[in-house]
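Operator note (shift B, R.M.): manual run for FAD-dependent oxidoreductase requested after the automated queue skipped it. Running by hand, logging everything below so the morning shift can see what happened. Input copied straight from the record, untouched. If output looks odd, do not overwrite the archive copy; leave it for review.
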Amino acid sequence: MKKQILIVGSGFSGMWAAVSAARVADIEGCNDLRITVLAPRAELRVRPRFYEEQVAGFVAPLSDLFAELNIEFIAGDAERIDAKEKIVWYRDPHGGTVPATYDRLVLATGSQTRRPPIAGLAEHAFDIDQLESAQVFEKHLDSLVTRPASAARNTVVVCGGGFTGIELATELPARLRARFGDDTETKVIVVERGAAIGGRYSEALRSTIEAASDELGVEWRLNSEIEAIDASGVTLKNGERIDALTVVWTAGVEAHPLSEQIDGERDSQGRLKVNASLQVPAQADIYATGDMAHAKTDDLGNTALMTCQHAIQLGKFAGHNAAASLLNVEPYPYRQVNYVTCLDLGAWGAVYTEGWEQEVKSVRDEAKKIKIAITNELIYPPAADRAVAFAAADPLAKFV
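Run finished. Output pasted below as returned.
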């Protein structure tokens, strides 16, 4: 009887976990390992690009790749995990509840925007967290040209000055000009509760973000928090009112709630704390990866971030180790010592840094070329070619 690896999620980590597991089976000449991906659709949604225009095109189909590598696919949404019986119950496209069994489970369901209980947030704020919500936001921007001209119509408030908030805010001036023309005065305001622009970044990176914001006309409200959001703007906790017909929430992410069904320790973002093999210690048959995993990247105390850079490598290690555990192959301890940051800064360009200390290596057009190479090529799925895919899925091969 075939052993079953079930991978829940087809994002960066889930897709690479499947390819990596198939690679191990191929190396070992094993035909008794069944690798299955459970996800709503056999596609990779290129989430790091959702701040850009024409978001509907940022989807890469996976059917041909899966077929080439003998990876099975189940269309459905995972709803319940029975770790004792090794069953994942999912809702199929017809609305039925169906069981999927496993010998090893790889949780790769990613993350979602954290939405705190702020008045009006659910009703009036947009987000670019998922493809559908990013499409709603894009359609809203398109609709603004039909509204009467006003300061509120021409103002966008971005709530949260983290990575996503910065990339969206610096891209928005160009997106607004494309709709209103160069002669219309527009305003982009970032509301950030921290005391500095890009507060968690290095001084050199913060200075670059600030310079780009100044040149692009992006305003920052530091030491500020949202009190309430309504149809015509936001009210800050300090009493300031900002009139805006467009408010976007980008403040914070958390692991998919499926992690709460697993017996294990979690961090403040809901990620499951895993061992070096990416197993959940209390559930040796369950591996967490990507944004579901709180994993050490090195021996210096650094942990993986909720980025595709880490999700890709986490997926390769999780898939390898899940397959290795069933085929009596030595697992690889997850390590990802190299770390880079490449932040898009809209029409200004971009900034590229290396190391956890975030030393700035290039800016503007040079960094923009690196950013485009990463987001338009490097993070996309491999070709549906067995040799090419397996070479790319090697956890020990250099990614960046």
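Quick read of the result: The chain has nine helices and 25 strands. Residues 308-326 form the longest helix (19 residues).
Leaving this for review. - R.M.
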